[in-house]
Give the backbone structure.
Amino acid sequence: MREDKSATLRSDAQRNRERILEVALAELTRAADAPLSAIAKKAGVGQGTFYRNFPNREALVLEVYRYEMQQVADAAAQLLQTRAPDQALREWMDRLARYAMAKAGLADALRQATSKYGGLARLGHGPVTQAVTLLLNANEEAGTIRPGLTPDDFVLAIAGLWQIDPHSDWQPRATRLLDLVMDGLRAGASGAGGPPTDESETDGSQADGPGGGRN
């Protein structure tokens, strides 16, 4: 019974922490100087719980950054469990775009929270690089993208995301950009796991083949 109670307490603490991070992302994106007390109130936790998790603004802002980056990274494996590799990659790119826009909104909060820019540049990038590697490998094995692509190639290809104004109607522009990137990744693919040929085209090619010519 004592172990069950301890597990419940740990689960509640984790939910509280995640709720704080979700609310903090929304509030800090809107206003870099959002009061910590307001974030705690909207998250539905007391001041004691809040400050046990995040003793100061810097700790909160940096953890929001890391948390969102990890969520993006974890999504890669989750998508590959339920989607074809190329579909998983394309949906993950949309998830990355949403993160990029949220991160841009957090820029002011990050600057106010710390001056350790070198550290910020590296925070969380390892998990995302691993996610990109996982997705590229799955697609190369399926024959849905050209062989030999590296995470660096991918990052360079999507660099245009960071040129989009996060305060504009960014979604149509990001979608168009990522569709173009996906077309580029597919160029030169072996086709082993590519999309099925259109049925009408298949029928037509068979009809025109030996013994199947049309009148």
